[in-house]
Design a protein that fits this description.
This protein is of the alpha+beta class. It is built from 7 helices and 11 strands. A hairpin with a 4-residue loop joins strand 5 and strand 6. Helix 1 runs antiparallel to helix 2.
Length: 247
């Protein structure tokens, strides 16, 4: 048995929330988690993230099963590509929204496999023995510089251009999602926008998740901690945990 919950909060600085988040399950006991962090300002980012999450949710609800692992990988790539087209259609119809876009991070859990997919800098983690293990890799300029050895991870955290994305839905006509195939023997899954990870490090997040609280209380506490530190961005979290595991 799995328990899940999700939350989104505007934070303390932004005047509206550009994030969207969902968790869905079907009759086959397959789970889809998704978080999207919109960008573009003046509510356009909110539109982009909503288009992505709504489209992905509709497509998941329209099928009884994601099928085999290979089928699920193809499905992930397909629905994200379709969502990208939907965002382009919107900007064609409403030229004033041109430049809007969104990150997307997703996870699909079935009895046989666990897949993550991402575009942008929203993060996907697995939880094992009270430790968060990041699965996804951020599509940011600073992460590219870290990988090439031009920046250290510590320098990247304080870099003035750390929020510059190299990849996002709505930025190009063709987009491909990175897919990660993960072992299913995990205690939980956490997806989040960077409003969480920019305020709290992995150890601080894991500490809250290990407390004897309900899932909803854990997420509320994480939001409180982010906002207590300034809450300079929208914060969205999707959380799934195995019943009886206090992770």
């Amino acid at each position: 048995m799995l328990n899940y919950c999700y939350i989104t909060d505007p934070g303390k600085v932004r005047d509206h929330n550009e994030d969207s988040v969902t968790i869905l399950t079907n009759s086959n006991n397959e789970y889809l988690l998704a978080v999207a962090d919109g960008m573009g300002g003046h509510k356009d980012g909110e539109v982009a993230s909503s288009i992505a999450i709504s489209h992905i949710g509709r497509r998941f609800n329209s099928i009884s099963s994601v099928g085999s692992k290979e089928d699920a990988i193809n499905w992930l790539k397909e629905v994200v590509s379709e969502a990208n087209v939907e965002i382009y259609k919107y900007t064609s119809k409403y030229p004033e929204s041109e430049g809007m876009g969104t990150t997307i991070v997703m996870a699909i859990l079935t009895k046989e496999f666990l897949l993550f997919g991402n575009i942008g800098d929203s993060s996907g983690y697995v939880i094992k023995n009270n430790i968060l293990h990041k699965i996804t890799s951020d599509h940011t300029l600073v992460n590219l510089l870290v990988k090439s050895g031009e920046l250290t991870p510590e320098e990247a955290k304080e870099h003035p251009r750390k929020n510059v994305l190299m990849k996002a839905l709505g930025a190009n006509t063709n987009i491909e999602m990175d897919i990660f195939d993960v072992e299913t023997d995990v205690d939980g899954i956490l997806l989040c926008s960077d409003g969480l990870t920019n305020m709290l490090d992995d150890e601080q997040i894991a500490k809250v998740l290990s407390e004897e609280l309900t899932g909803e209380e854990k997420l509320q506490k994480l939001i409180y901690k982010c906002n207590n530190r300034g809450g300079n961005d929208n914060i969205s979290i999707a959380y799934l945990v195995r019943e009886g595991v206090s992770k």
